[in-house]
Specification:
5 helices
Length: 142
């Protein structure tokens, strides 16, 4: 048995996942609360529910899947690592999206497209010129 009360294989697996995701035990705040729901007297007597908070990201997970605290500690860490990885993937996606957007924005336009845009602008200005009010003074002088 390991520190969490799970098998050595599970203990090594979670350590490897945490190392890969750069989640360290010193960054975690762990607390135990009474579980809720079915479980009989065990739920009322033992604080098997695990609450983990990752201080750098502020992500909090609560796990009460199993009846034992050790397994819940394992599952909570697994869940926390998955959430942190998802957060990092999302941030990386948005950063990539912004880079591509800036690249498209800063790209040079072809000469033909510039001419078409200019032509449309001239047509629009001609339309606006036709919408101007007629000056009454000019009509009265005639």
């Amino acid at each position: 048995m390991s520190k969490f009360g799970v098998t050595i294989d599970k203990h090594n697996e979670i350590r490897k996942l945490m190392r890969k995701a750069q989640v360290f035990e010193k960054d975690l705040k762990e607390s135990f609360v009474h579980s809720s729901g079915p479980g009989g007297m065990n739920v009322n007597k033992v604080a098997t529910c695990v609450v983990l908070e990752h201080n750098p990201t502020g992500i909090t997970v609560k796990c009460q899947k199993e009846r034992t605290q050790g397994l819940n500690r394992y599952h909570a860490r697994l869940l926390l690592v998955k959430k942190i990885e998802k957060l990092r993937r999302t941030e990386a996606y948005y950063e990539q999206h912004e880079r591509e957007k800036a690249k498209r924005r800063d790209r040079r336009r072809p000469q033909q497209l510039k001419e078409e845009v200019l032509k449309d602008k001239h047509l629009q200005s001609e339309k606006k010129a036709l919408r101007k009010k007629i000056k009454v003074d000019a009509i009265e002088e005639e």
